[in-house]
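Fold it.
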Amino acid sequence: MSNSEKAVFTNMCMIYDNDGNILVQDRRNPNWPGIAFPGGHVEKVESFTGSVIREVYEETGLTIKNPVLCGIKQFQTSNNERFVVLFYKTNSIGKWI
């Protein structure tokens, strides 16, 4: 019996400031609509932290630093894959592009 399984790794990041503001996206994709934190898939051989920095930049043009892992969620997909979401947060914000 094998202990391996197919897994899909993704991330989301809550970006906040010292005034109580939190950045969210209003997703208009019909496959996954609604309010969400920026994030996406971890690429093959990419670090988890590096992937969330890249995804936030791609989706918002914002450079973040020092994202902190603060939660994990997982569920099984209809293709029998383990779908893992790594939740990060940071208030270390660079510049808008």
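The helical segments are 48-60.
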